[in-house]
Fold this protein.
Amino acid sequence: MKRATLISLPLLLSFTLPFGLLGCGGHNKSGNGGVRLSKPPKAPPSYPPPANVPIDPALQNAARQEIVSALRSSAPLVRAHAIEAIREGYGPTGEENIVRFMQDPDAIVRFAAALAAGEMKIAQAHDQLLVMSDDADPTVRVGAKFALHRLGDTRQSHDLEATSRDLNPTVRGDTALVLGLLGEPSATRILLPMLFDASPAVRLEAAEALWRLGNEQGLNNLVGASVSQFPDDRMIALLALAAPHDRRVLGHLQGALTSEYDEVSLVAARACGMVGSDMGYGVAVKGAGSADPRQRLLAALAFGAIGRADAQDKLGALLKDADQDVRLAAATAILQLRPQS
């Protein structure tokens, strides 16, 4: 199989940005999870046990400075990812930055700010969210309605049922995303029909949302996609499987640590970390030394999800990377690290 362009930046940094930008597009038209790999699994790279080291406050401050720099970027995606990084523990001024960027000129940044405001339950964002609920961009409106619901203002929540049937697949995918994040079991009746959506991207997002709500059909669809012949589908599915932090999926994630695609293995390492396992640590160490900035970025995110404090030296080096996207991923990861208990 010819190697494709595997991943777009939003997927590299997060699984919570607008789904239409993820780059999973229209590969797997069948919706049945693709083709299973025939090669037997091999052991992932070995790794040392965690070392009990303190978190370096100077490194954390340097990470926060990198995020500040990214917020000033002229690239909308970089600003959006910087907003997501704030959620990992930026500090008391983080909420102010999120509210400020709710008026960003670019819709993807406003959407990211709305999601962050909702997930962090930023009360001071309420009035601006009401304005955004009538935004010119339909995805921003979806994000605003999600955030308002999280803040206890449910007057517009019923609109999400209508946007789940929007003609624009990006709007449908974003609706599935926020329905999963809301955690309301009643959303299952909206999401189940979306598993048969014409867009493969929407189907995957609906499956993740259903799995977040504990629905087994969503889980089954994601397991199938995790062994797709298309590596981008695999990566999306692996992160989606890990999103509820349910350790029962660890066996599925572990099998992808030795994928024939390094990027898939690195995403699997991140996913393992999301469910509380460091078995992908050796994969991340290898990726951090790659000549490919995409792999260094994915390695940084894997270190962050794994959360081992002894990754600070490696993340410190990545924080000085020549590539800004790698530096921002490293900054995000540094704020996720926790001392060993």
